[in-house]
Amino acid sequence: MIKAVQSPPTPYLQFSRKQWAALRNSVPLTLTEAEIVKLKGINEDLSLEEVAEIYLPLSRLLNFYISSNLRRQAVLEQFLGTDGQRIPYIIGIAGSVAVGKSTTARVLQALLSRWPEHRTVELVTTDGFLHPNSVLKQRDLMKKKGFPESYDIRSLVNFVSKVKSGTPRVTAPVYSHLIYDVVPDEQKVISQPDILILEGLNVLQSGSDYNQDPHHVFVSDFVDFSIYVDAPETLLQSWYINRFLKFRQGAFSDPDSYFHHYSQLSEQEAVAIASQLWSEINGLNLQQNILPTRERASLILGKSANHAVERVRLRK
To answer: For residue 42, is pLDDT > 70?
Structure first.
């Protein structure tokens, strides 16, 4: 008798695209094609089909989790005999440069805010917690932007801690990809939203990733549900280079752009520089600091060509 070969145990439930799409359960799509065009990032294909088959089931799952969390809070308040304090539900979104984290975050923000409960959803990126370029230059870290040592991690943890503590008004610094720096004297105010989406390279990293600034808690300690957007590195590199070429034709042409000098490059020169930036900075950061956090995520979105999600892994 031949025994079937069993797959090794895994902490994740695994779904094909078709299996995951079936979990939409007739939830109506509340975004129009025009709105989706505004939400997608540079060099990304995002269709109504992608939103319906991938992000609607995900928003449905998140809505269940958030409702369950609110019921748990109500039980605690009943036990303590206290009035409810608004504690935001925090969703963390991590993944490599060029994988499409920002688009995932914007789509989920739009979908979650349109559920019948009409919850308020804020979106903050951890880019604002990078040290200013002046500090990075002083510490010789400009070529390690995005690596753990380039962040003001104490300020980031303090921000998330205040949000999760129910502080009525919390501010976050703002980052500009145009000037490639934190914007001086500009802040985003977070006033007790129902949901906070925190998007960045480092939202799943732990204190052990920050040996230069050791502490006992990290962002992931305050995140209720985490998503890792995944793709093979060959695709990530290709997406990064294509995005660089599009920026060269668009954003880099702005005289105020930090990368304005790249706009004068030929396509061949631009590809060579983008490839070098990937291999020396972004690819290195992926392998050393970002990819090792993938298995900490509550859910992993596995992408293939054209940024299409082909598989979903959900922690049991």
So the answer is: no
